[in-house]
UniProtKB/TrEMBL annotation:
Protein name per Swiss-Prot or TrEMBL: Uncharacterized protein
Length: 262
C-alpha cells in the first residue's frame, strides 16, 4: 500500500515538474520574443530620431541660420500673427504701415517641433524699417511648415493655435500640403527671396530679432520657452542649444537628453 502511494506521489511530482519546466520554457520563449521586439522598437526609434535630426538640420539651412545667430543662441523658428491681417496678406507684403502684429516663436524640439499654445508673444508695429523683415519671417515660416510636413514630420498646431488660418486649412497634415504648395509656387513666381543659401536679408532678419527680443533670461515670460543644451551624443553635433517648452523639456530630462540653461 505504502509502495503504491509512494509511486503515485512520485509520478505526480514528475508530472508537476514537467508542467513547471514547460511553463518555464514557454516564459523563456515569450521573454526572447519581447526582447527582440524591444530591440526592434529601439532600432526604429533611433532611426526615426536620426531622420528627424537630418530634417531639422536641412530646415536650419533653408532659413539661413548663420554662425553668428547660432553663437548668439537666438531662437530659430520665429513667425508673425495679427488680428488685423491674415497670414496670406502678411506674406504678400500688403500689410499697411502702423498695423499691430505679434512676434511668436515655435518650440524647437528636434523630435516634435510645434507652436506653443497660448503664447503671449511680443507686440510689434509694422513700419517702413521692418516691413520687409516681417514679411521675410512670414514667408519662411510657411516654408518651414511645408518642408517639415513634406518630410513626414507632424507639425502640431493645437486646438488653441494662434495660427487660425493654418488650422483651418489643415497645414501641418498631409491634407494641407496643396495649400502650402500653391502658396510657395506663387511666391516662387513673384518673389525674389532665396529658398536656400546665405543672403543679406537673412542676416538683417537675425540682427532684427536679436535687437527686438528681450534678454535671454526674459524670453520665457513672453514666449513660454527656455534655453536648453542637448547632451553630447544625443544630437547631430557635440553641443547644441535650443529653445523648448516645459513639456518638451520634461520629456528630454526623462530621456537624459538635455539640461536647462535658462
Amino acid at each position: 500500500m505504502e509502495r503504491r502511494l509512494h509511486d503515485h506521489l512520485q509520478r505526480g511530482f514528475k508530472g508537476v515538474q514537467r508542467g513547471i519546466e514547460g511553463v518555464h520554457d514557454h516564459l523563456q520563449e515569450i521573454h526572447r520574443d519581447l526582447s527582440q521586439q524591444l530591440r526592434t522598437i529601439s532600432d526604429l526609434q533611433k532611426k526615426a530620431c536620426s531622420t528627424l535630426l537630418s530634417v531639422m538640420s536641412k530646415v536650419d539651412m533653408m532659413v539661413d541660420n548663420s554662425e553668428a545667430q547660432e553663437a548668439a543662441r537666438l531662437p530659430r523658428r520665429p513667425f508673425i500673427t495679427s488680428n488685423d491681417v491674415g497670414l496670406g496678406e502678411m506674406m504678400r507684403g500688403v500689410v499697411q504701415i502702423g498695423t499691430p502684429v505679434r512676434l511668436h516663436l515655435m518650440c524647437e524640439s528636434r523630435l516634435e517641433p510645434h507652436i506653443v499654445e497660448d503664447q503671449p508673444g511680443m507686440k510689434l508695429i509694422v513700419g517702413d524699417q521692418n516691413k520687409k523683415l516681417l514679411r521675410w519671417i512670414s514667408v519662411n515660416f510657411i516654408r518651414v511648415v511645408w518642408f517639415l510636413v513634406k518630410a513626414g514630420v507632424q507639425v502640431t498646431l493645437g486646438a488653441g493655435s494662434v495660427i487660425r488660418e493654418l488650422a483651418h486649412h489643415s497645414v501641418g497634415s498631409k491634407a494641407g500640403l496643396v495649400l502650402a504648395d500653391m502658396t510657395l509656387d506663387e511666391l516662387k513666381r513673384l518673389d525674389n527671396l532665396p529658398m536656400i543659401g546665405k543672403s543679406q536679408m537673412a542676416e538683417k532678419v537675425w540682427m532684427f530679432l536679436k535687437n527686438q527680443l528681450p534678454p535671454e533670461n526674459n524670453i520665457s515670460s513672453c514666449f513660454k520657452l527656455f534655453l536648453v543644451r542637448y547632451n553630447p551624443g544625443t544630437v547631430a553635433v557635440e553641443e547644441s542649444y535650443a529653445w523648448l517648452c516645459e513639456k518638451c523639456i520634461d520629456k528630454g530630462k526623462k530621456n537624459n537628453m538635455l539640461k536647462v540653461v535658462s
